[in-house]
Amino acid sequence: MQKKTWRITIIIAILFLLSGLAGLTAAYKNFLKIPIVQPDRPLDYVLKPGASIRTLASDLHQLGLLPQPKFLILLAYWKGAVKALKAGEYLFPPGTKPTQLLNIMVAGKVHYHRFTLIEGWNFQQLLSAINSDPHLVHTIINLAPEQIAQKIGLPPINPEGLFFPATYYFTTGKTDVDILRQANQTMTNQLAQAWQERAPNLNYNSAYQALIVASLVEKETAATKERPLVAQVIANRLQKGMLLQIDSTVTYGLGQNYTGKLTVANLKQDTPYNTYTRKGLPPTPIAIPSGEAIRAVLHPSENNFLYFVAKGNGTHQFSQTLNQHNLAVNQYQIKLSFPKIGKLYNSFNCKKTWYTSAMIQELIGNRCVLRNLN
Question: Which of 48, 235, 267, 270 is spaced 20 to 30 Å from 340 by Cα?
Answer without folding.
Answer: 267
